[in-house]
Structures are given as structure tokens and as C-alpha cells.
């Protein structure tokens, strides 16, 4: 596999100084473990450690190595570990705010082209949670596709009702209902996987991410799966680290651990794109700084009252926008306190 087939594109090539051509081995991070990582040049996978300088910079900037990163390294074919000297600027970076009051961010994966946002149609079906995942993906500049799993567990009338609800609630994003048990819809997913493009699966535990990878790859023993709790439909984590794998289509897939807690959001761009039909009305509000809550002349509230926007979607938009504003303010206070 060439570097280009492994996802190296013009974005990264433009970051190479012509005078340093051939100085480094270029590789991609395929898995991250405690204290070291697996990297690959497309042909060989090797364990690697970052230089002390790079580790210090990462601690200072909270910019740690993650799956999907492209790196410059030396000693790729010598010794126990290759040595990572620097990280290429990321084309995209999927991240979330860590759970809790302290403002910090967890980098999930990098350089992803398309994210499959996986959500269940059965127990655990929750459009608010789906919108939260979607806002994180859009904020990262990644193209989303929504995969609704476990369609085989619903009668046709309820299945159609929920799919219509998702497509109405979240317009302009592809929505595919699938079943890992019957295989229904998996051919459509397979057709979306383009060679040299990088994809990821994101969603809560128990929605079928690992089973989906097993189905798409066709090797059920590559990842083991754990049962879903019968009581609440929540899953037990079967993926304990993030890993980049090659599919038979030539596409690349990153599997991420389920995230039960999303923390507070600080993703204004992602929220605005998720609720674009709502934010499009903001310019029509009477006041420029309209809070869209009990405000005279608010075009958004008027659209809700007229039935043009569902109240549930409006309420989730307000909740997430307020959450994002609070997180951004906390970040600003922390920044000025540390100055």
C-alpha cells in the first residue's frame, strides 16, 4: 500500500519542506496505547514513541498523539521503537469536551473524511443524543452519515415512523436504516466506502458499532462483541482503544470506544450546522442579540409557535447553545486566569 492509498493527500504533501525531502519516514498512527503508539508506512506497522520534546509540547498544549495522525519519524526499521519527531497539521480533528467542570478536551481521532454517526432504533433511541453527536462531527469539519441500527427489531409501522422522524428532525444529512443481523442496508454502507478515504464510527455503547465493522469487513472474529444490558439497552464496552484498520474496499476505518458521556459542548459551529434551519431565521429576529427565549420579535420562537419547527428540536437547540456558551465562557475565564 502506498502512502496515498493509506490516506496521504495534497493537504499533507504541502506541509513538507522540499529541502527535507527524504529526511524522514512518513507514517500514520494506527493505534495509541499508554506510552507508545503503533505507526505504519502503509507496508509495515511498528511500535513508536515520541521524542521528549514532543511529549513535553503535548502536555503543555493538550495536543496528544491520536489515531489517524500523520507523523515524521526516524529509526523506523531499527531498534525496539521508531521515534516520532513531529506531527503533521491535522486536516480534521474529532474531539469532545471532557466530562466534568474542568474545561479540557479529549482528542478522539484525526484526519477523518466521513463519520458514521451510529444510533439505535430500538432501546436507547434518543434524538437529542443523536443531535449532540452530530454537532461534534460537524464542528470538526467532517462529513456525517447517520446509520440507524437494529431495524429488524421494529415492526414496519414504528420503523417508518422513526426514520421519518429522524429525517424530518435532521434534514440535509443522509440517514440509512440498517440491520447487522439480517444484513439489510449493509450493501448501501459498503458502497459509501471509497478507497484511500478515512471513516470513523461514533456512537454510544450498544448501538452496534463493532458488529457493523464485523459485518462490513466480513471477518466476525476480528473484533469480539459483548452483550447489551437487557434492562436499559446500554452496551458493555468491547472496543477499549481506538484503531485504524483497512477494509477490503481500500477504505480506512477508525473504531472509537462508545462515549456514554458527552460532557458540555463548546462547538458553536457544529451546533449551528446541526440546526441550520433554525439558525437561518436568526437574522429575522427584531434584536441582534436575541436569546430566542421569551423574547419579543423572535423569529425562531414564532416559527415554533406556527409549527414550522418542532418544539422538541427547538428546545434541544436552546439547551445545547446555552451549554456551548457556558463552556466557551469558562474557557475564556481559564485563559485570562493563566495569563
Automatic annotation (TrEMBL):
Entry GO terms, CC: cytoplasm
Domain EngC GTPase: 110-260
GO terms of molecular function: GTP binding; GTPase activity; metal ion binding; rRNA binding
Any one GO BP annotation for this protein: ribosomal small subunit biogenesis
Cited InterPro entries: G_CP_dom, P-loop_NTPase, Ribosome_biogen_GTPase_RsgA, RsgA_GTPase_dom
Residues binding Zn(2+), per UniProt: 285, 290, 292, 298
The enzyme's E.C. designation: 3.6.1.-
Residues binding GTP: 149-152, 203-211
Family matches, as HAMAP family: GTPase_RsgA
PANTHER family: SMALL RIBOSOMAL SUBUNIT BIOGENESIS GTPASE RSGA
Cited function: One of several proteins that assist in the late maturation steps of the functional core of the 30S ribosomal subunit. Helps release RbfA from mature subunits. May play a role in the assembly of ribosomal proteins into the subunit. Circularly permuted GTPase that catalyzes slow GTP hydrolysis, GTPase activity is stimulated by the 30S ribosomal subunit.
Protein name: Small ribosomal subunit biogenesis GTPase RsgA
Protein encoded by which gene: rsgA
